[in-house]
Structures are given as C-alpha cells and as structure tokens.
Amino acid sequence: MSDIQKLTIGKALNLGLRRAMEEDPKVLIMGEDVGKLGGVFRITDGLQKDFGEQRVLDTPLAESGIIGTAVGLAVRGFRPVCEIQFEGFIFPGFDQISSQLAKLHYRTQGKIKMPVVIRVPFGGGIGAVEHHSESPESLFAHIPGLKVVSISNAVDAYWGIQQAIKSDDPVLFFEPKRLYHSGAMRAEIDTDGTPVSCFSSQVVREGTTATVVAYGPSVKVALDAAAAAEDEGHSLEVIDLRTLSPLDLGPVFESVRKTGRLIALSEAPSESSLTSEIAARVQQECFYSLEAPVLRVTGFDTPYPPAKLEEHYLPDLDRVLHAVDRSLAW
C-alpha cells in the first residue's frame, strides 16, 4: 500500500533514518546531542526513544573521536551514521576523514569496506555565529575515496539518506540547514514506493535561454531566479547536481549544448571550488556550443561574515539574474 505524506526536508530525513534503522539492525546513529535532544535541528528526534541508547548514541564534543569510532565500527560490520552538528565543526575530524575513512577500502584492496555516512548541515541564512554557516564541500569533493552528496528537497532527503547508508563506501551527506523546516522544498513522498535514485544530476526546470547549475540551498535560489526571469522573457534551465563527487555532468553538457550559456551557482567561495571545476569541464566539453563564457555566482572569497552581513554575502535572485543579463549581452 502507498503511504503518501507531504514532508519537509527535516521530516523526510527523520523518516529516512528511521526506515534505514528498521531495515538493518547494524545501522547506528552517533553525534553531539542526537539522542535525548534529537539534534539541534531535531532531525533525529524520537529515534533514541524508539531504538534505544545502544543504537542512537550521544557522543562527547569530539569530531575526531566520533569519526574515528565510526571507522572502527565499520570495520566490525556496522553502518554508522555520524552527525556533525554544524559544518564548521568538521575540521577536527578532517584527518580521520581524509587519511582513514577515504583510504581504507583502497588500502586493503577491497577487503575492508567503509559504509559510513557523515551528515553535515551546511550553508548560511540562519543568522548564526562564526563556524555555523560555512560551505566546505569542495574540500571533501577533492579527496578520492569519498562520495559527496548534497540534497535540495524532501524527496532526495528521504531516499538519498537511505541510499547513502546502504553504500559500502563513505558518503558525506551535505544538508541545507536553512531549508530543513521550510515549506518551500516540501514534497509529497510515497514512503513505501519505488526508491528514487539520488546520486545523479537532475534537470528540475527545463529552459532554452541559459542553463543554471546549482546544488543544496542554491537550488531554491536558481528556481526562484528562473521564475523571475520568465517575466522578462527568458527561459532558464535549472539543474540540481545532487552528487558533488563523483560529478555527474552529462546532463549539464547536454543542456549547455542546447542553451549555449551556463551560470554556475553556489554559496561557497569561488576560488578552487566546485564551480571552478564545472566551468573548466564545460569549457572543455562544450567549447563550440558556448555563446558566452561560463559565469559563476558564488559566495565571496572571505571568511563567512557576521549575521548582519550574510544577506549581502549569499548569492541571491538578483545576482543570478545579473549574471544571466551579462551572459546574454556577450
């Protein structure tokens, strides 16, 4: 029987984690305040109550210890899901992620698998203090041995977290925190239906004037810009990358060959970033189809600013439309 529910991203993640734990007793959840509190964003709300403290573990404030423990649990056959409370707290665990988690499968010639998921709430827009609004995903996309995923809507949240947990390779699962409880990306989901594959790029709005590629929280900005551009007679095609490593750029190439223009959109700083890689790859594969240079709309190459300034830092609808105008004027 179908069980269709209209869910926010936060609720979809909660139900996806619950389903994974019901289906596999080896799935564990661990992190700071994930148990009794249910996480600072309430994504794990109720899971410790229903599955017990042996499977939903409140850990010390020690990201290196959380991830190191998850590596050991994976070696013993468990499937740990770690929550990093805010993306800016992940760096004490960077060594464990890059030196151990990403390498053990390769180092052991496939004998040891690393089915570890690291959930990372990321991005700005919540009026937070330092180290609570950053976008470090490019750093992890650069590390071989890791899958890096970023969701933008409730459907991908529900199915994506389950597929990440079933993966035998480590997955960094970036979640747009400012959209957790927003109705903007709410969607109807048949929670008992056929799983939706979430590890490939997807055209989320078709268009012919220019292509806008985005991921995570920037997808909503791209869709809002496309709606506004329509009033000006422009038809923007919007692509949600979904998987950041390995990048699935086939749909992007196909779209650019049709539109001749590309805007790459992200909250992260522009230098040495995913938008840099997208621009380079599109130029390489679609050079003769381009009618204008690839343009990028990103955060600035500065530390994330105080909350009073973040609305000026974050790429918004106007900056995307300005980039479209620049591209069309080329």
Automatic annotation (TrEMBL):
One of its GO terms (molecular function) is oxidoreductase activity. Transmembrane segments: none annotated. Residues 7-182 form the Transketolase-like pyrimidine-binding domain. The keyword Oxidoreductase applies. SUPFAM superfamilies: Thiamin diphosphate-binding fold (THDP-binding), TK C-terminal domain-like. Its cofactor is thiamine diphosphate. Its EC number is 1.2.4.-. Keywords: Oxidoreductase, Thiamine pyrophosphate. The keyword Oxidoreductase applies. It comes from the Bacteria. SMART domains: Transket_pyr. This is Alpha-ketoacid dehydrogenase subunit beta. It comes from Amycolatopsis melonis.
